[in-house]
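Translate sequence into structure tokens.
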Amino acid sequence: MRGLSQEELLARPQGLPPVAFHLRHIAGSLDRLLSYAENQPLSEKQKQQLAAEMSADGVKEEILADFEHGMAQAETRIRAINPAHWPEFRGVGRKQLPTTVAGLLIHCADHTQRHVGQTITTAKVLVALRGWQRITI
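Result follows.
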């Protein structure tokens, strides 16, 4: 992502969600899912961050730094979860959808992998469009 310009990071080529969204969403969704795994409700800050993930603004360096910080925090939190707690029930969201700690950890990996793939695809589209100079912001 470092090779993308500020404009490319926020661009929506062919209506795709911007790379910045995926970076914010990966870090934010991990934070939220891990809160549920830790049996904690979402904070107001987490809810505000969720609402701002699709924001069309932001400074590249800050977006990348927030992403890297979120990844480091997620790793620390995941490593702190005792495997003995994996079968424990957890309720997710307002509806308290049923899962387990293990289910949440698996979803962390699955969901992150999906958005990493979308990020890479969008970045490749942006790089391909450079030659055509048709980036739509």
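Note: The chain has a mean pLDDT of 94.
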